[in-house]
Amino acid sequence: MLIKTTTHSSCKEHQITDEKVYFERRDMLKKMGFFGAGALLSGTAGASVFDIFSDDQPTAIFKQNALKYSPAGDYNGTLTPEAKVVSHNNFYEFGAQKHQPAELSQGFKVNPWQLKISGEVENPLTLDHDDLYSSFDLEERIYRLRCVEAWSMVVPWIGFSLADLVKKAKPTSKAKYLAFETLHDPQQMPGQRSRRLGGGIDYPYLEGLRIDEAMNPLALMSVGLYGKTLPPQNGAPIRLVVPWKYGFKSIKSVVGIKFVEKQPPTTWNILAANEYGFYANVNPAVDHPRWSQASERRITTGGIFAQNRIATLPFNGYGEEVAGLYSGMNLRKYY
Amino acid sequence: MALTVSAQRIPYLKALVHLAALYPLINLYYTAIDDRLGADPVEAVIHFTGIGALNLLLISLLISPAAKFFKMGFLIQFRRIIGLYAFTYAVCHLLNFLSFEVQFDLQLFVDEIFERPYITVGMTAFLFLLALAVTSTAKVRRKMKRKWQTLHNFSYLIGLLVVIHFYWSVKSEIIEPLIYIAIYALLMALRHQKLRGWVKKIRSQ
């Protein structure tokens, strides 16, 4: 169990990358992209050959605000440095390559924002931008994040329990599932305008949870990380974090949560049902058809020699808290 | 249009090819070791060397049609060096996967090669490429006589396997691999007479 209540000291100074250094890195990547394409040798590290035709200059750096929250306790592992958490993102709305969301999202506007809670509830409600930060007590939680692509991070999120939101909405007896939806705004989200940039998926991005999963204390609605409000590439202003499931379940920039009776459609499942299930619980015993899920590379500090391959744990190590939700279910069938 | 380049200039042009092929590779590993290659340098070096190998392979396949069409016979002298750099990038690609992705877990490495079709296809392409690389010297070429050309025609198959490997490896972003497939198809179309000839020969047998 990673939720601890002692003082906030988990984030040691040496683990945090200075902002200046971070942007120098971005600059370096761009230059490499230029030389790579210039030499007709490659789409690089970051940039593909075709990127020289696109304008990927950030218009301005998105402003993150400090948050008031109760800090998590000591964490005995190594956190993924903030600079990596905010520069390595799968958020296809801002480009399908991992470096793109950080570059293409800096002009994203999160205020005004409306998160609508609707459907089978007695108390439908709408949270405006300020409500996201003031309606619930915010706490820090250090969670492991396991991507379906077999890499992982450890992130100090800030947010509130999804269960608190569910209770506030008062679901009716018909509410069996929650259907989440990301903002659909092609003006602001270049990946929704261009199929190439957006990785060929249909928008808006949809996700879902069973209501008992949503009520599990681990399920978090996150509004921040590393002490500040979320940057756009990590799903500003509000996102879901379900640490026992593959990362794609943790939908970003949420505008709608609808309580429904039937299992809702979810984006990756629609795209490739044989590869991505509705449940998507982290499970080392069930491989992705095209790669092994038995182990993962933990992204922390250090260069290419410092990437550590570690065994993947069932439910991403949160089995004690969540395995009960699935007792009696065949997790090979419901992957 | 015919362009000739005097024999004395060829070594300088070759030096340029060496530089253009090696500089990005050295720069890549330098930045990767120094942790300046984004959050996941492992993915970055794997993609860079993979795409680099494919680009070089396609350039090597472009050389003979270009030499013929533009009457620039000297270009043929660059085919081997570019092919060998495609091989070099492919070696790096494979070593990146072995050392940084699976981190010398040989069991996992072997399992992945046989269990994941896209890796099986990539590995097959690599083995053919290895065969072409070791038979690329003038000495071996003379020894092999006509068999040499037969063997090196496998570069067309390698190209096909590599674009399939790329297409198969992505999650949903298929446009870039599709562009590569189109380029490959174009390069094959430029050889339609040769390819048709083979088909006839096989049929008549």
Structure in words:
The complex is a heterodimer of chains A (335) and B (205). Chain A is α+β, with helices and mostly antiparallel strands. Chain A has one domain (13-326): Oxidoreductase, molybdopterin-binding domain (Sulfite Oxidase, Chain A, domain 2, Alpha-Beta Complex). Helices cover 18% and strands 20% of the residues of chain A. Chain A contains nine helices and twelve strands. In chain A, strands 3, 4, 7, 8, 9, 11 and 12 form a seven-stranded mixed β-sheet that branches. A five-stranded mixed β-sheet of chain A has the order 2-1-10-5-6. The longest helix of chain A is centred in the N-terminal third of the chain and has 20 residues, at 19-38. In chain B, helix 2 (41-69) runs antiparallel to helix 3 (79-101) and helix 5 packs antiparallel against helix 8 (154-169). The longest helix of chain B has 29 residues, at 41-69. Chain B has 205 residues and is mainly alpha-helical. Chain B has one domain. Chains A and B meet through helix 1 and helix 2 of A and helix 1, helix 2, helix 4 and helix 9 of B.
Task: Set down the secondary structure blueprint.
The complex is a heterodimer of chains A (335) and B (205).
Chain A lengths: L18 H20 L43 H4 L14 H5 L9 E6 L5 E4 H6 L4 E8 L4 E11 H8 L7 E6 L7 H4 L12 E5 H5 L4 E6 L2 E2 L9 E3 L12 E7 L6 H5 L23 E4 L9 E4 L7 H4 L13
Parallel strand pairs in A: 1-10, 4-11
Antiparallel strand pairs in A: 1-2, 3-4, 4-7, 5-6, 5-10, 7-8, 7-9, 11-12
Chain B lengths: L9 H24 L7 H29 L9 H23 L4 H10 L1 H18 L3 H7 L1 H7 L1 H16 L5 H15 L2 H13 L1
